[in-house]
Amino acid sequence: MKNPFKKRDGVAEIERELITLEKRKTDEERQRSETMQALEEAKELRRESLSSEDGDVEKVTATIRRLATEAADHADLLGEIDQQIIDAQARLTSARERESRNAEVTRLNRAADSIDAKAPELKKAAATLARLIRSVGAELADDDGLWPTHSTKRPSERPEGRADLASRREGMAALVAELVAAELPELFDVTYDNRFGYMGILVRLVNPRVQQPDWIGREVPEPPLDTATALQSMFSNRLRQRAATIELGSTRLSENSIARLAGLPVPWPELESVEQAIG
């Protein structure tokens, strides 16, 4: 058997409770208003009775006492209803926050599971891409020079040094970058350098498994992670950790929500000249 005096804790239940309380408050205010009107009329009647020989002052006074008691009872009841409304509103705020937390926890955990499940397909796709890129490289000799390049614009750490032509390795790397840029242009950082001009860059994390990874660090970059570990390190483990934090309620929900980026523009600038870009 349900306890009729047990506080409700669901959003829908509390909302129904508030509707009932507001209705009772309206009814009680109407009854109190009617009582106060009757009380004023009784007081006026007593004033008239005092100057009338046949006025029943005692009877009217008894009516005034009864109406005054009823008015006081209505006022007390309205005070209790107002307090219950305040209490229910506070519980409703907590219940909505709790439901929001539960929904966000569920969403984060489902997202983490879904990301982990993509590991086999991603691994297969990466292996296919690697095989195809290597098949292109296999058609080239080690000393086949590709396109002319200004050696001063080549990153200094490359093994090609100051060679005048792009190497097979550079060609394969450029092909991978081009293929990825064609499908995922929003992932590339397009920068402008006053000396060298534009660059489109996709950068690895130095240490993706630590709590706060970075793109630049003094330590030697970690070897490439396998697909499942990469997904866990960068995404799913972090989503589950965030879900656990939200579930504990140790931080505000808004501080734990994942930024949702929508409508990002394609980063490649469509400019007529370098002067237009900088000026």
TrEMBL record:
Residues 22-55, 144-164 are annotated as: Disordered. Residues 22-33, 40-50, 154-164 have a biased composition (Basic and acidic residues). This is Uncharacterized protein. It comes from Metarhizobium album.
